[in-house]
């Protein structure tokens, strides 16, 4: 024990007038046994089934609980609207199981697990789940649900992350994803004035990574085990399972959007749209 410690112990229990202090006594005596947690807090946890409160709420009564104002986003071909289970759950469940194979620990879903994840998304004010509506098919009276876009970690002034993009496989190599990306990036950069948008993809989702580069996202690197380990019961096997949570990270800044990203997507939107009413 050095001189400083001896001096501290000799004086810590005394007031300046020589009286012993409570703080000093506690220091010299050491900590007392702490009360049990159950004696100090209330814990009403119950292992119960998911409360399906929001299953049947119509769109005009459904609270999206989002930190920013939001209006429907649309071009002449697609519309992005908040995901409302009463309107969109059947389309969501119709997404092929195989479409979730490159989505990390998301999906495939049954009705119960879908509603659980959708409600978890809604309950976080920094998340927004959007339904993609195909206006060609909608105008023709056909099933118009085309997939989902999900934003996470949307901060008030700084950045946002694409948490999920699952466009129905029938729309591969069509205009749909390009129109959606243009709408969302314009909303994030031009309306919300954010300064950075991040794009994640599991490393074996080669098509998604190529799309990100085509849209103007710059590679930042690989984040290993980015979201932890996938439960053994879920999807991936062998080498792909080991890689399932290694994530490719890309981003776009507000400067990149202003100088090239916006114009790149504007040119891509000039592409002749596919007749989606003929798609199976």
UniProtKB/TrEMBL annotation:
Residues 78-218 form the N-acetyltransferase domain. Residues 1-14 have a biased composition (Polar residues). Residues 1-37 are annotated as: Disordered. Residues 16-37 have a biased composition (Basic and acidic residues). GO terms for molecular function: protein N-terminal-serine acetyltransferase activity; protein-N-terminal-alanine acetyltransferase activity. PANTHER family: FAMILY ACETYLTRANSFERASE, PUTATIVE-RELATED, RIBOSOMAL-PROTEIN-SERINE ACETYLTRANSFERASE. This is N-acetyltransferase domain-containing protein. It comes from Cryptococcus floricola. The lineage of its organism: Eukaryota, Fungi, Dikarya, Basidiomycota, Agaricomycotina.
